Amino acid sequence: MSSAVLSVKNISKHFGGIKAVQDVSFDVAEGEVLGLIGPNGSGKSTLFNCVLGQYSPTNGSVEINGHDVTGLPPSKLNKEGVARTFQQLSVFPNMTVLENVILAGQEHQGTMLSRLFGPSDAGLTEAAKQMIEFFRLSHLIDELAGSLSYGQQKLLDAAMAFMGGPRLVLLDEPAGGVNLTMLGNLKEHLIAYNKTHNTTFVVIEHNMEFVMSLCTRIIVLAEGQIIAEGTPDEIRNNQQVIDAYLGG
Ligand SMILES: Nc1ncnc2c1ncn2[C@@H]1O[C@H](COP(=O)(O)OP(=O)(O)O)[C@@H](O)[C@H]1O
Ligand SMILES: [Mg+2]
Fold first, then answer.
1. For residues 138 and 134, what is the distance between their CA atoms, to the nearest angstrom?
2. In this predicted model, which residue has the larger pLDDT, 155 or 246?
């Protein structure tokens, strides 16, 4: 038994002849903020999709809190306390901020039926308002999500992922396309959420300053394999990483 929240064990994922992920293993401890970096096409999103049940891995297994969850669908993983944000925004532009967050809460509860037939907010309005307040979006609560700036939508996306109190959140490029001011904002809120809830994060991110100041440990992928692992300082000074990625 490991005490890891997430254990990735010898995961490989092949698409025909493409070896997108090759024999990747790592553990993530409770409350840890782990960064996952690497060049475009190095297998980061594919690895997330294997962990999250979007893809079933060609080889290997995934454990959450010591339970084998390999290939479980995303809805089941939600019940295990796992949530994600997508590389592409997943907010509904024609719904208000509040409606988006309530809907996310319903999806985390897996209550598709109540979404269709049940009470309009399933008792989630209060929790949604608190989450919106946590991300300092209260002044926009009744605005259509599509009218928010891109950075604000990324914050909203994070607020939606945190509905339902996940133990583990996988964030795929949360900072992508976000301006400098909102970036500081986003990082501050993620760190605050991690500190107050001891939620475990795995973060894919290209913005090095963001990832190095947010994460306590970083794993570097190249061509589907782990080429380095360490603290932000160790990664910054790792010659193999500089050659494969940072130098480019
Ligand atoms: N659904 C898919 N079908 C075929 N090839 C894929 C699929 N998803 C990803 N790939 C390939 O797998 C490799 C890794 O992609 P990806 O995981 O998206 O990388 P990253 O997120 O690090 O940019 C790439 O060569 C990509 O083209
Ligand atoms: Mg990706």
1. 9
2. 155
